[in-house]
Design brief:
289 residues, 3-stranded antiparallel beta sheet, 13 strands, binds flavin-adenine dinucleotide
Length: 289
Amino acid sequence: MASRLAEYGFQTLLLSSGANDTLNPILRQKSLYNQVFQTSHLKHYLPTNPSRNLNNRTINTIVWNTLGGNRVNGGGVERMMINDWTSFIKATNDPSFDHHQMAKYYQMVENFTSNRPSLISTNHGHHGPIKITQVYEEDVSHLWQNVTKELNETFTYDYSGAIDYGFSFEPSSFSDGLRSWSAETYLTSAMSKYPNLKVITGATAIKLDVDETTKQIQNVLFVSTDGLFRGTARKEYILSAGTFHSPHLLILSGIGDPDILRAHQISHKTCIKTRRKESDGQRSHHYAI
Ligand SMILES: Cc1cc2nc3c(=O)[nH]c(=O)nc-3n(C[C@H](O)[C@H](O)[C@H](O)COP(=O)(O)OP(=O)(O)OC[C@H]3O[C@@H](n4cnc5c(N)ncnc54)[C@H](O)[C@@H]3O)c2cc1C
């Protein structure tokens, strides 16, 4: 997203708590993928409490702390399901989340190849930066089709088509043993290409300062090895710190469940509400805090 904003001319600052490890072979090479799990500086430390529902076991929750985030994952590439997009439309009352409409954004990302191109060529993009390969193995394919029949399930050649469930072959963002991912393909080239994009790595956002009266974010506080800093946006703050750290940062900023805030003695700002505004035929979202 940062590289797209820069491409469209916006002055963009990206704060990433992880380092730029794009040249690290552990992240690049498929054969070294297991080593990522053993490399502690690549991870956020997220201890879980023992869960009663797991017979008091704890879960080893993994969150990668690298530029480009958890995309240094297993490499499987799936789209969100049609039903999920329908839930987005219902939750936001915004029909532009229609899955046909969203497919074009997936296609912008993809440089897709397959050994069965006739079946999937129209569903995928072929000129995007992320290399994705889908390999059908004929023998295994027959095997799975038989399994599917036995289980009375569905087999599909491509989850990106009309049938996005059941059994299929998962496309992968590893091609020729090398990973293709956001930090490497989008950010690395954007950082040298766009002077209006600044990426600060090793920078952890610790609080969004909210103006008590206007309920607008005034600035973001972040720490790096160089000290404590304050960043002020002229236009928008975009929070995408992942499933765990996005709500965590909101809570540190006094936005969230009042019971949790009280338990940690954080003063409560009030909860986020989203509101839609139509102006001059342009769609814009307002996030009132
Ligand atoms: C082991 C594993 C395997 C997976 N395998 C697959 C797979 O094969 N296919 C698939 O589709 N999905 C897979 N996933 C899930 C997928 O990777 C995630 O759903 C996806 O990356 C989430 O993207 P995100 O942008 O929401 O957050 P993230 O990718 O988590 O990005 C958040 C970023 O914010 C940074 N950050 C966090 N807190 C702060 C802060 N306070 N200040 C500054 N920066 C901060 C983090 O370091 C990170 O770079 C896997 C996940 C894991 C953990």
